[in-house]
Structures are given as C-alpha cells and as structure tokens.
Specification:
single chain, Immunoglobulin-like, 7-stranded mixed beta sheet, 4 helices, globular, binds copper (II) ion
C-alpha cells in the first residue's frame, strides 16, 4: 500500500516568471486590536508545502502572531463561549472570514457580499460570536474562495465540549487535528496562478491539485505511542478535491461528522467532500510494526500515504472496549417532518449535460452567453441566484429540502447557519440520519434533508466545491 515516492498524479504546469503577489508594504500590526481582541491577519506568506528539496511556496495565510502559516492558527474555545477576532486584511484583495459549520449570528457569518461587504485591503472587521455546539469546524475566506482558499486562507476551529470526554473510559487519551488540503503546484512548487476561473475545470470536477498536504506539509510523520487511543479531527479544506481516505489496521471508528456526534461506527474508508469534517477514533496497535498510513485515493485506486503515524516510545495502556460516544449536543431542535415546508433544489449544468438556459443577474440566457459570463451551473434555473432568496422560511419552521442533481458530477451542498438531518438518498431512508452542514450528492442522485429554520437571517446555500460555487452553484435562503 505504501507509495510514498509518487506524488499525486495530475497535470504539472510550468509558469514562466513568478507572478508578483502585488501586496503593498504595510507596517506590521500588533497582536491585538484597539478593542483588545486578538488579530487574525490575512497576508501573503510562505510555506514549505512540497517535500524537502522543493522550494517554499508563496501562499496567502492567516496569522495571530508572526508570519502566516497554512493551515491558519487553530482557534480553540469551549462550547457556549465567544470567539473574538479582528480580521486585519493585508492582502491585495478584499476578503471575509466564514466560520464554517458554526450556527452563528447572521451578521458574523462572513458570507460576503450577503451578510457583510468584503473587507478592503488595509481595512479590518471585528468578528465576535458565540460557538454554541462542540465539534470540529474550520474558518476560511468567503470572498473569491476559489482563489483565496486555494492560496491558503483556511484554518481549524475547534469547539471543546463543556463536559470532558478525553480520558474517560472508552474515550481517547489524546487528540490530533489533521487539516487536509490540495494544492495545484508547478515544478518549482509555486501555486499555479493563471487558472482561477478556468471554466473547463469548473464544468468538471473543479480545480484538482497535485499535492495533498496534512497540516501544511507533504507526507508528514505524526508521532504516536504504541497502544494509544487517539481522536483524529479530520478537516478537508481543499477547494474541489473529494477525498477518499483509509486508515488501515487502526480500528477506525467514526464518532462525529461535521462536528455533530454520531453513534460510533466502524469505518473502512472515509469519504470527505470539501468542507466536510470527520472525527475518528483510532487504536494504535500495542505490538506495533512502527508505522501506519493515512491513505488517500487520488481517484485512480492507487492509494497514496499522505501522512504516517510513527509509533515510538514506551507502550501506553491500550484503549479498551467499545469507543465511548461523544456527549450529545442537546442544542439542536429535531426537525418536525409531519408537516414541513417543502422546498426543492434542482442542480443542472457542467460538462456532458450542460444547461439549455438559466437566469443570470435578472437576464434569461442561453448556454453560450452564460458561459461567456463564467456561469456553467444553475440552481433552480438561476445561475448565481443572489437577487432573491431561493426560499423564505418562518422562524422555527421545519424545512424539507429535496435536492436533485441532474448533472453527472458530485456536489457538496452546504447550508450556512444550520445543521440538517439527511433523510434519504435516492428514495432509500438514510440508515444513520446523520446531522451535517455539508452533504455530498453524487451524479444523478436525489437527497432529502430536513432542518428547523431556527436561526434568523439571510443564509447562503451553495456547492462547496468552490469552482462550482464560483460558476453558478450559489444561492441563499431567508429565515424570518
Ligand atoms: Cu458542485
């Protein structure tokens, strides 16, 4: 299974002459804003993404102090506590920060231009919000995401439970956050910069990279102890790559999806769409051969070891028995599906099928004109339908949303401000009824989800394959 020497297959592009980042020279900012809030600075930086021997890569990155790094600094709070950060934009573009999966106050959602104007270069914005639910989340740019997230503007946001779980019988004794990302690098390990709005990629699976990193490094070693029971908080921050992961010989059991607990279940493989998270418990064997891989299938069945758990040191008392479930949230109203408000989301477009016509910026257009405007996808006949809401729901009402994918490509549909229950897939009831904020829907699939519209405001609903989002798969709904 080990295949470390091969980089992920993918097209390598050779850039002639580096593209200047265009950042103006700015005085360094302090660590704290005038408000006393910690700074979250977005700025050009460098990172050693590619393996040793390759040059460092110019990225855009978040920093609280010092130079920005990828992923951005881990923000860690306890459920019910307030997150406070002053975004300081030292980028050459306007930006905004979205706190993905947090059931947040609408004004703090960072969903430019719907919930705030994007923050201009040199300007700042104060984000302060309660993080109500424990779990694994992340934050990322929500302006020109297909470029800004691809350049590195993403980081983990961990909300700890008020009641400790780590260390209890059957629970893990330690946890690791693993942020997985996908980069399109040239032969000098520079980010390929001339294809941010590549319609060919956007009408297929999106902008696929050729280098997968774990916590910002290619093929890192992750030290573990023999016998150790670990909680892995795995986040897929890639713009477009759906990651099929394997953790062989580690007795992997899933305990949470998108932050929300699930009844622990064995998992052979994990399928993580962009923006999705999985919390997994692993048991490092006591009688260990030294290493175990975190494997990724780049799409051709040839598993690549993207990180290596290196077992070392004295054995610890092995994790025993059934994995202890996480504490239930207790904060999420269950959907009342007896008489819900029924809505439908029809996805059309992309290569092979296309869209005959759709409305873009109030104008009905044929396929060619849509494409000339950068649009190759539509939700309910609207490409980038931002003029009016897809639907309105009264506060507290259960919404039943049928999502129909008429394209041959998978999509990762994300609802802002809410978690939803997956009811069925292609008519068959979902055996787990998982609660998520982002769900993967396969080509020609139909999914039914339901949620209580209990968070007032204007909330984006979009494909989290950011090349698809940028080329039409974007809308919003209103709760009032
Ligand atoms: Cu999509």
């Amino acid at each position: 299974m080990r295949n470390r020497s091969n980089r992920l297959p993918g097209r390598r592009t050779f850039l002639t002459g580096a593209v200047a980042l265009g950042a103006t020279t700015l005085l360094p900012r302090g660590l704290f804003a005038d408000t006393g809030w910690p700074i979250l600075r977005a700025a050009p930086s460098t990172a050693q993404l590619a393996p040793a021997g390759y040059p460092a890569t110019s990225v855009w990155a978040y920093a609280t102090e010092g130079a920005g790094r990828v992923p951005g600094p881990e923000i860690r709070v306890t459920a019910g506590d307030r997150v406070r950060r002053q975004l300081a934009n030292d980028l050459p573009q306007a930006t905004a920060v979205h706190w993905h999966g947090i059931r947040i106050d609408n004004a703090m959602d960072g969903a430019a231009p719907l919930t705030q104007a994007a923050v201009a270069p040199g300007a700042s914005f104060d984000y302060g919000f309660i993080a109500p639910d424990p779990g694994t989340y992340w934050y990322h740019s929500h302006n020109r995401g297909q470029e800004q997230v691809a350049r590195g503007l993403a980081g983990p946001l961990i909300v700890e439970d008020r009641e400790p779980w780590l260390g209890l019988p059957g629970a893990a004794t330690r946890e690791l956050t693993l942020v997985l990302d996908d980069w399109l690098l040239d032969a000098d390990a520079a980010i390929v910069e001339d294809r941010w709005d590549d319609l060919h990629a956007a009408s297929h699976d999106g902008r696929m990279g050729n280098t997968v990193t774990v916590n910002g490094a290619a093929y890192p070693d992750l030290p573990v102890r023999p016998g150790e029971r670990l909680r892995l908080r795995i986040v897929n921050t890639a713009i477009d790559r759906i990651m099929l992961l394997g953790l062989p010989n580690l007795s992997a059991r899933l305990i949470a999806l998108d932050g929300h607990p699930v009844s622990p279940r064995d998992v052979e493989t994990l399928l993580l769409a962009p923006a999705q998270r999985a919390d997994v418990v692993i048991d490092v064997p006591s009688q260990d051969d030294g290493t175990h891989g975190l494997l990724l299938d780049p799409g051709n069945g040839a598993w690549v070891e993207v990180a290596t758990f290196r077992s070392d040191g004295a054995p610890v008392a092995p994790g025993e028995g059934e994995v202890r479930p996480l504490h239930a949230w207790g904060t999420l109203a269950p959907p009342d599906t007896s008489d819900p408000q029924r809505e439908r989301l029809l996805m059309e477009g992309g290569a092979m099928r296309g869209i005959a016509e759709a409305t873009y910026r109030g104008e009905r257009m044929g396929f060619r004109k849509l494409a000339s405007n950068g649009m190759v996808w539509a939700f309910n006949g609207m490409a980038h339908g931002m003029k009016t809401p897809m639907f309105r729901a009264p506060l507290g009402r259960t919404v039943h949303l049928e999502m129909v994918n008429r394209s041959i490509f998978p999509h990762a549909i994300h609802l802002h401000g809410h978690h939803f229950t997956v009811l069925s897939r292609n008519g068959a009831p979902d055996p787990h009824r998982d609660v998520r904020d982002t769900v993967l829907i396969g080509g020609d699939e139909t999914l039914e989800i339901a949620f209580v519209a209990d968070n007032p405001g204007q909330w984006m609903i979009h494909c989290h394959m950011l090349s698809h989002q940028a080329s039409g798969m974007m809308a919003w709904f209103e709760v009032a």
